[in-house]
Design goal:
Residues 272-377 form the Glutathione synthase substrate-binding domain. Belongs to the eukaryotic GSH synthase family. GO terms for molecular function: ATP binding; glutathione binding; glutathione synthase activity. By secondary structure, the protein is of the alpha+beta class. The protein has one domain (6-544). Helices cover 36% and strands 21% of the residues. α2 (71-84) packs across α8 (192-208), α8 (192-208) packs across α9 (210-224) and α10 crosses α11 (284-298). The protein is globular and about 70 Å long.
């Protein structure tokens, strides 16, 4: 048992990164997290204090650069562009429960990012896509990793594991249609629609106002590329973000596969993609952009339902696995979860109607995104286990080169459960010895409601958390907008996530696997929390240099 102490937790700890032992399941799917160690090595916990990162320049020169930026003009153009192109979020009024739309939280200008690190994340996305699939099909690994203490301390994860065993593993209860279904992985899908438009906005601002913003951009480029001198540093700019094209394409591929496999029993015109959403969702524009792209580009209809409403609307043929929406008579070809990642999405309790709806969806022959296996593969405990020496080789026994490439992206992850190794215990001891600033305590769940662990008493409940090495990236200046207004300017840190899409059949054959875009989130460096929807971070874009 660990001694009692208080451990500070920062929800965003992998700043300026994009792929780690992969699978921070936003689970609006998975996000891989890749530590940008080529630019700023993580300082050892043996050091006396966290590294002090220098910023753009002296305060006087920063003020000079700030004074040269036409802030009001840039903000006005950003707001107009955002309104014209749907870079918006939905808000609820407290008085009458009506809603309105406002500009999404955003960084006014893109953040400098080294092009080599970006390319590394880009190139590794397919490998991490495949890793998640292989983990999802290893029932013994998932049971050994998530059973026991993790499921006991986190009943929500325990429920997911129990459903996984019921549908895919236990011979008496498993579903043949579900086991024969294709598996669709759209890893890191949060803000896919808005991130594309943000990239376009930043491309517009940095070209339309190139002269006015050049000093600002050059100063930040020197921070992230300190080894390059002024003569050799060549900015590439904001790259194209294909997420709004590639993610709908992956859904279409799964949809077409379903129609092809069941053409004798299905009228394709009656097929639909089901978006499982939250009641009271505010990130509706981001989701609708994907929906509109599916219809306008591919002619595929989308319908939206919450788990609560699906309970009474689902009709499942247990023999064939066909799933019909009673209210419309449509058959579901693809299930795309934008809800179901936190206990709050199951308000009726452990044996309630939402869990029953989740079971019916999983038992169907529709392609699930994510399936329960993919969902479980995104827990922090699985992420931590993959980081242990020799574990990746379990999934890639004959591909040493791929294993080494992925392992380069790992940060330190340490178990706080009964399976803790001497290395894990040493990390915990470092915290007890006053080096908590070098670590972050991460809960199992992502994308839902993170448990507030900002002041956590270390004790028996630690099994539901993972201790992670904290990264200290270079800080750069940013101007952040919230609600269409300038929130302020200051030193910032960012997190890069790569989108990836994969479609795999029931035999494990990969049918589709590719990098599908990026998301950069930026927040002021003094802020510990980090969600965009929760009001801490903003949407941004990488300015490659």
């Amino acid at each position: 048992m660990f001694h009692q102490t208080r451990l500070t937790k920062s929800v965003f700890n992998l700043y300026i990164n994009s792929l780690l032992p992969l699978v921070i399941f936003f689970v609006h799917q998975t996000t891989a997290t890749f530590a940008w160690t080529t630019i700023n090595k993580v300082q050892s916990a043996s050091a006396a204090s966290p590294p002090q990162i220098s910023t753009t320049s002296t305060e006087s020169s920063i003020q000079t650069i700030m004074s040269d930026i036409p802030l009001d003009t840039l903000a006005a153009h950003a707001n107009s562009y955002a309104s014209a192109n749907g870079i918006q979020v939905e808000r609820r009024r407290d008085d009458d429960n009506s809603s309105f739309f406002e500009c999404a939280p955003m960084s006014l200008l893109p953040n400098a990012y080294p092009k080599d690190a970006f390319q590394q994340a880009h190139d590794l996305a397919p490998a991490f896509n495949e890793l998640i699939d292989r983990v999802s099909r290893d029932a013994a690994f998932l049971q050994n990793t998530l059973g026991g203490g993790v499921s006991t301390m986190d009943p929500y994860t325990g429920n997911l594991l129990q459903l996984y065993q019921q549908v895919y593993v236990n011979e008496d209860t498993s579903s043949k249609p579900a086991k024969a279904a294709d598996r669709l992985g759209i890893h890191r899908t949060s803000f896919a629609g808005l991130s594309c438009e943000i990239a376009s906005l930043h491309q517009y601002l940095t070209t339309r106002f190139a002269t006015e913003t050049s000093d600002w951009m050059e100063a930040n480029q020197k921070i992230v590329s300190p080894d390059n001198n002024e003569a050799t540093t060549v900015a590439v700019g904001v790259p194209e973000n294909p997420a709004l094209q590639r993610i709908p394409l992956a859904m279409k591929t799964a949809y077409d596969r379903y129609a092809q496999r069941f053409v004798d029993t299905v009228n394709k015109k009656n097929l639909v993609i089901l978006f499982v959403v939250q009641d009271g969702e505010t990130n509706t524009v981001d989701q609708r952009l994907l929906e509109f792209a599916l219809w306008e580009t591919h002619g595929i209809p989308v319908t939206r339902r919450s788990l609560t409403k699906l309970h009474s609307d689902l009709e499942l043929n247990q023999e064939s696995g066909a799933m019909i929406l009673r209210s419309t008579g449509q058959e579901v070809a693809v299930v795309y979860f934008r809800a179901g990642y936190a206990p709050t999405d199951y308000p009726d309790g452990d044996d309630g109607i939402e869990w029953h709806a989740r079971l019916l969806l999983e038992q169907s022959r529709a392609a699930k995104c994510p399936s329960l296996g993919y969902h479980l593969a995104g827990t922090k405990k699985v992420q931590q286990e993959l980081a242990r020496p020799g574990v990746l080789e379990r999934f890639y026994p004959d591909d040493k080169q791929k294993v080494e490439a992925m392992r380069l992206c790992f940060a330190g992850l340490y178990s706080m459960g009964d399976d803790a190794t001497p290395e894990d215990l040493q990390a915990a001891q470092n915290v007890l010895d006053g080096k908590e600033a070098f670590y972050v305590l991460k809960p199992q769940r992502e994308g839902g409601s993170d448990k507030d662990a900002s002041t956590l008493q270390l004790g028996e409940n630690l099994a539901e958390y993972i201790l992670m090495e904290r990264l200290f990236p270079p800080q750069q200046r940013a101007i952040l907008l919230r609600g269409g207004k300038v929130e302020g300017s200051g030193d910032s840190v960012s997190e890069l996530g790569c989108y990836g899409c994969i479609l795999v059949d029931h035999e494990g054959k990969v049918l589709h696997n590719e990098y599908a875009g990026f998301l950069l989130r930026t927040k002021f460096s003094t802020v510990d929390e980090g969600g965009v929807a929760s009001g801490f971070a903003t949407l941004s874009s990488p300015y490659l240099c």
